[in-house]
Specification:
- The complex is a heterodimer.
- Chain A is 79% helix and 3% strand.
- Chain A contains eleven helices and two strands.
- Chain A has a two-stranded antiparallel ribbon with strand order 1-2.
- Chain A starts with a helix and ends with a helix.
- The chains are: A mainly alpha, B alpha/beta.
- Chain A: It is found in: Cell membrane; Membrane.
């Protein structure tokens, strides 16, 4: 209700101008391209080293009665991870830097642009970045025979939703950050999610307590949603995961724009 | 309509927790005016500016800008403002030109129009040759000029400048003053804060002196000097240095309208400096150095806001 109210007052032109600033950064020189490019490789390297390399030792895997190669189990998880890290990189490091050190948003808020439009614009940009990663990653997966082209097309919008959720979360967290020391905590948290969210082994192999804990965290839902689609086994359960991610995105943006208003418009 | 004030504040208050930054001020700024806020650090100038810029919500009081309500119509008001903040917040990720183009887009201008204005403004602030370079290597004065160009990208009716020349060298200050004067000639209304008296005298038609969140004086630079100071000031130093100041001040009582003993010299506020000097000699005082000068805004400022350090 509150969200619809806020969204209905958004000016597409002003949100577009916030996105445009990041396009301007790309136009202004090579430094941002380097940042953008480097974010793509991490999940791909994990797929090759662990999915394919370690996968050769493990061989086949049976989850929920379906047998698959280890690489095709890991690949959708790495796809979800690349959606996550694309969105998080933009909404944590870059967002925090603009907020705290470059005072970019302070300058923006002196114009007709409102805090919620800054938040939405930055989120859209984070998704553009994340989706660039996942689109390429999906092409790689199809080329390696780890999913089918049709299911890859179905999985792509799911990765956009994953980006939205982590983008919203990242932005909300950034508004609470005190300084760079907090980023160490964030990376540790992000790494824990990366390792335990059903990425490299099925969550059912953990003790029940741990399994429940994992099921509360966001990357688990992202991996389950994306894996279900990549493997071509859609089910009603996927809707639950999608709902979790949508709620996370909405709450994240709402919280972030409130915090922006509190800190910058005091 | 034309003579309707651009800014009207009534009983404007800004509090941060227990701290009262702005303590109930009233003011009006007319179209085409150059209006200044003068005051020591912590006087409430920047808080007032942020409220006028519609980024900070007043705690109490009424604030109307360009005929609109500052709280309700924030985006519509900001669309017609140009803001030059105290600290440059140019975008280091963008080139000089891209800084202006990007900023113009926030006001809803088309890409083509944004580019046209960016080039025109770079010309105006003499930065065309740096257009494709990054912001970081620019000197302080260049960055300030770019920030002012950025504030003008929407052709604002009202330009807010928070300490526009703090930290700049004299050449850069004079160039900036000249550009601001030209801006004013084009019909823009300027509102600025400063703690440089020469800047206030150069730029402002009218100003208020703020201290402790309140307005303590208001008027044109000349009328403030006439009201709160005398036409001339005699500065006397004595050979016995620091110890004798109090005694000399007592001996000077009645020579001028006011005697201000400082640690190293005595200031005597008088209407006629030469007559006062004659009186000093008649009383048999023998200062080691004498300076007769006209009263400045600085005398007014120090008289009103005191000589103790604020922070």
């Amino acid at each position: 209700m509150v969200t619809t109210l806020v969204v209905s007052r958004l000016s597409p032109g002003r949100v577009g101008a916030v996105i445009n600033r990041n396009v301007g950064a790309l136009r202004s020189g090579p430094s941002y391209w380097v940042v953008l490019l480097s974010g793509f490789f991490e999940p791909l390297l994990y797929l090759l080293s662990i999915g394919v390399g370690v996968g050769a030792l493990i061989g086949e895997l049976t989850v929920d009665g379906r047998t698959m190669s280890y690489a095709s189990f890991v690949a959708p998880a790495m796809l979800a991870v690349s959606a996550m890290s694309g969105a998080l990189a933009e909404t944590t490091f870059n967002f925090f830097f603009k907020l705290k050190y470059m005072k970019t948003f302070e300058a923006v808020l002196a114009t007709p642009v409102r805090p919620v439009e800054v938040a939405v614009g930055e989120l859209v940009w984070a998704i553009v970045r994340g989706s660039l990663y996942t689109a390429i990653f999906l092409v790689v997966m199809v080329a390696m025979g780890l999913t089918e082209a049709g299911w890859a097309v179905a999985a792509f919008p799911a990765t956009v939703l994953v980006g939205l959720a982590f983008g919203g979360l990242g932005m909300a967290v950034s508004t609470l950050m005190r300084g760079w020391q907090d980023f160490d905590l964030l990376s540790t948290g992000q790494f824990a999610l990366f390792l335990f969210s059903g990425t490299f082994s099925p969550v059912r192999d953990y003790p029940v307590g741990v399994e429940v804990l994992i099921q509360v965290t966001p990357l688990y839902h992202a991996v389950e949603l994306v894996r279900g689609l990549c493997m071509g086994v859609p089910g009603w359960g996927l809707l639950g995961h999608a709902l979790y991610l949508a709620v996370l995105a909405a709450v994240g943006v709402w919280f972030a724009s409130r915090r922006l208003e509190r800190t910058l418009c005091a | 309509m034309a003579d309707q004030p651009l800014i009207v504040a009534r009983g404007l208050v800004k509090r941060f927790g227990d701290f009262t930054a702005v303590d109930g001020i009233d003011l009006e700024v007319a179209p085409g005016e150059a209006f200044g806020f003068l005051g020591p650090n912590g006087a409430g100038k920047s808080s007032t500016m942020r409220m006028i810029g519609c980024v900070s919500v007043p705690t109490a009081g009424e604030l109307r800008i360009l005929g609109m309500d500052a709280v309700r119509d924030g985006p519509r008001i900001r669309a017609r403002l140009g803001v030059c903040p105290q600290l440059d917040n140019l975008d280091p990720d963008l080139t000089v030109r891209e800084n202006l183009v990007t900023y113009a887009r926030y006001f809803g201008l088309s890409r083509a129009e944004s580019r046209r204005r960016a080039d025109e403004l770079l010309e105006f602030v003499q930065l065309s040759d740096r257009a494709n370079g990054k912001v970081e290597p620019l000197s302080g004065g260049m960055k300030r000029r770019l920030t002012i160009a950025r504030a003008m990208v929407n052709e604002p009716d009202l330009v807010l400048l928070d300490e526009p020349t703090t930290g700049l060298d004299p050449q850069a200050r004079h160039l900036l003053w000249e550009r601001l004067f030209r801006l004013k000639q084009r019909g823009a209304t300027l509102v600025l804060t400063t703690h440089y008296m020469d800047e206030a005298e150069q730029l402002c038609d009218r100003l208020v002196v703020m201290d402790g969140g309140r307005i303590v004086a208001e008027g044109s630079p000349r009328s403030l000097i006439e009201t709160y100071s005398t036409a001339e000031v005699v500065e006397l130093r004595f050979p016995d240095g620091l110890e004798g100041v109090a005694g000399h001040a007592a001996a000077l009582a009645g020579v001028g309208k006011r005697v201000d003993p400082l640690p190293d010299r005595v200031l005597v506020y008088v209407d006629d400096g030469d007559a006062a000097l004659a009186e000093v000699q008649r009383r048999g005082l023998e200062p080691s150095s004498v300076l007769v000068r006209r009263s400045t805004l600085e005398d007014v400022f120090l008289h009103l806001t005191g000589r103790t350090l604020v922070d």
